[in-house]
Every structure is written in structure tokens, then in C-alpha cells.
Amino acid sequence: MKKGSDDSPNTSRNTSDPVREYKVWELQQHADRILASTFPSGFIIPIEIENVAYSLGLDINPVPGLSSALQVLGALWRDHEGRYWIVVDEHLMDYGENRYRFTVAEEIAHFVLHREPLEKAVDIHGAVGLQRLLAGRYTYFEANARRLAAGLLMPREPLHPDVATAYAQVVKVVGFRNLGAVTRQVTDILRRKYVVSYEAMQYRLKEHQFRAYAAMEEAFRTRSATLWESQ
């Protein structure tokens, strides 16, 4: 993806392609729309991702041994009655909360973005095989889903002000001696609040729309406890 191409609509794109590369702004719009529809009175953090799935007509089914049998943690498929299911590894559901939540969010994203090609699968094995085929054919297939999943679990509002709050709290305690320690603590505070992995939060904060690490570095350099002072 070319630098600077994420922020503005490109009306010349073929938006009818069921498997295409989405712009960041498009995925953010999807996330905002889904959350607003699921939680019309407003949402709280952490996002109740199962409720998001249910609001879209998706059922969640834990499958014992899914990971060991098919080497996946989750998949999306449609049964013979036309009902869509998110299947997840049962052990993950019981013991891996962060990864479970992101897996469900990813499959929601596939349902929103890639429903047409994925509906050809008639069972779990077919669904897994088809998702692998599409992921191999389109390099952005999984990237699109992960980015939309991140937008659902870590919505830009209230994440943007939460970054500033966490940064101010951390530098108040540890000072301005070690930038790495500050960014690690901020990331850890936020990943616990949003119930995601450290890596997922780290990636989200590095995204173009946040540039949180760059903002923290600049504030740290000037010994300021305030981020985005002009906003």
C-alpha cells in the first residue's frame, strides 16, 4: 500500500470485487457503523464482541480439537439452512480470552468483507480450505480482516483519548528517563483495558490514524505530559 493512500476515498476503485484491498478509512467506517448498530446507546470498553456477532446474525460454536485437527483457531461457514456460524477452538474459548476475542472479531470481519466467496463452503473443512485458498490468492485477505477486527475491539474513540490519559499517568510516575519503558507501560495499560494482546494493541497504536508512538516520542523529547495538545 502506497504511503499516504489511506486517508481519502478513491472512487475509481472497483468496489464490487468481493475480495479486494480496502483502504483504512473504509475499514474504519465499517467498524464505526457496526458498533453504532450493535450498541445504539453507546458501547463500553471492553467491547462485548460476542454481542457484535449476534447482532449480525452470527452464532458462535465452540469445537473441541479444532486447532489440532485443522490447524486453525476459528473459521466462518454457512450451513445448509443458510445460517452463518463462527466456529472457534473450544480450548481457546475457555482459556485464551484475548486470542478468543480477536478470533471472533476476525471472523466477523470476514463475514462483513468476504461473505460472498466464503458462502461456497458447505462444511467446516471446506470453510477452512476456502479461507486458506483466498488468503494465498489475495495477500490482503487476512490483513483486511485483522484491521477491521482491530477497529471493532479497539475503536478509535475512546482509544485516542485513552492513549493520552495513559501516557500522562505513566510519565507522572516514571518520569522522562526511559521512553521505551513509558511506551511499554502505556501499551500494557491499554491492552488490559481493551482485553486484547500486547501485540494487537501495539500494532493498533502504530497505525497511520493514531501514530501514538510517534506522538509519545515527541512529547517525551519535549518533556511534556500531554499528547496531541492542538486537538
Q: Can you write the helix and strand succession as a string?
A: HHEHEEHHHHHHHH
Query: Separation of termini?
Result: 28 Å
Largest sheet: 3 strands, mixed
Q: How many structurally independent domains?
A: 2
Give a description of the structure:
The two termini are 28 Å apart. A hairpin with a 5-residue loop joins strand 2 and strand 3. The protein has eleven helices and three strands; from the N terminus they run H-H-E-H-E-E-H-H-H-H-H-H-H-H. The longest helix is centred in the middle third of the chain and has 22 residues. It is mainly alpha-helical and 231 residues long. Strands 1-3-2 form a three-stranded mixed sheet. The chain folds into two domains: 130 residues, no CATH class; 66 residues. The N terminus is likely disordered. Helix 2 runs parallel beside helix 5.
